[in-house]
Amino acid sequence: MTSRWTTAVIDTDLPGGWAVARSPEGFLFDDNGALFPREWLKRQDLSILAEHGIGHLDGEPVYLLELKAHSEVSGCNWKGLRAFMLDGDHTVYKVLGYAAQVGTWAREHRFCGNCGLRMTQVPRERAMYCEPCDLRFYPRISPSMIVLITRGDEVLLARSPRFVTGVYSTLAGFAEPGESAEDCLVREVREEVQIEVRNIQYLGSQCWPFPHSMMLGFHAEYAGGEIVPQADEIEDAQWFNIHALPPLPASRSIARYLIDVYVARRLGHAEPVLPG
């Protein structure tokens, strides 16, 4: 049976529930996973920066303990969010991904960006409040586009120096103020590989918690130009035949979904479903 996860603002004065602990080293985990009985976790020697109620897992409340630094807890270790994405339970990854976004926001909004005074959490609302300025600060979502460029049975894939060795993926970039998603797509493709595209088709979106992206996924057809990789950003970019693809991104990522959908369409196979 699949676990059910829903986000919610939960009062931290309530007792009980589950909790996850996040530090700059990642999330605390043991042989049973990354969720711990909340009261037990709070009895450990943890340097808690903030606590937030973040949702319900199978009806049970879940809280985030955002830590100043990681601590040694007997029988436990620390692991980054990407590792949970690759080898963990998908529902738990969604819990941790949301916790990471809330934790990043909580860490970065302890003080008002206008006057510098300490802010307070707003009860029953995901907001930090500065009373002197009468300002509320909410978690930030940054829109970005990600696109698979196609040319018949070929797809354009590239790799960044930050990627796992050998892995190629789609092109992506953040939208700038005043840009539409389509404007962003055309600009980023020109900047990263200096080619032109046409027939832009939107396929879906995915919340990407590294740390707070909303990835808008597209297919686009090649319209002209020669590949010239952007220095310091693109290590390599090539056309690959769908029958001879290089190592690809993780199956739960929207990048992999864009590739898999196009391959399925070319081969007449059933299209995959974008992971929620």
UniProtKB/TrEMBL annotation:
Hey, what's the signal peptide range on this chain? none
What is the name of the protein in this document? NAD-capped RNA hydrolase NudC
Q: How does it assemble?
A: Homodimer.
Cellular component, GO, one term: cytosol
Q: What cofactor does this chain's UniProt record say it requires?
A: Mg(2+); Mn(2+); Zn(2+)
Question: Any idea which positions bind a divalent metal cation 1?
Answer: A172, E192, E233
Show the HAMAP family listed in the entry: Nudix_NudC
Please name the SUPFAM superfamilies in this protein's record. Nudix
The free-text cofactor remark is: Divalent metal cations. Mg(2+) or Mn(2+). Binds 1 zinc ion per subunit.
- Per the UniProt entry, the Enzyme Commission number(s) are 3.6.1.-, 3.6.1.22
Transmembrane stretches, by residue range? none
From the UniProt record, list the reaction(s) this protein catalyses: NADH + H2O = reduced beta-nicotinamide D-ribonucleotide + AMP + 2 H(+); a 5'-end NAD(+)-phospho-ribonucleoside in mRNA + H2O = a 5'-end phospho-adenosine-phospho-ribonucleoside in mRNA + beta-nicotinamide D-ribonucleotide + 2 H(+); NAD(+) + H2O = beta-nicotinamide D-ribonucleotide + AMP + 2 H(+)
Keywords from UniProt, A to Z, are: Hydrolase, Magnesium, Manganese, Metal-binding, NAD, Zinc
Family, similarity comment: Belongs to the Nudix hydrolase family. NudC subfamily.
Gene Ontology biological-process annotations: NAD+ catabolic process; NADP+ catabolic process
Which InterPro entries does the record match to this protein? NAD-cap_RNA_hydrolase_NudC, NADH_PPase-like_N, NudC-like_C, NUDIX_hydrolase-like_dom_sf, NUDIX_hydrolase_dom, RNA_Hydrolase_NudC, Znr_NADH_PPase
Task: Indicate yes or no for the key word Magnesium.
Answer: yes
The record describes the protein's role as: mRNA decapping enzyme that specifically removes the nicotinamide adenine dinucleotide (NAD) cap from a subset of mRNAs by hydrolyzing the diphosphate linkage to produce nicotinamide mononucleotide (NMN) and 5' monophosphate mRNA. The NAD-cap is present at the 5'-end of some mRNAs and stabilizes RNA against 5'-processing. Has preference for mRNAs with a 5'-end purine. Catalyzes the hydrolysis of a broad range of dinucleotide pyrophosphates.
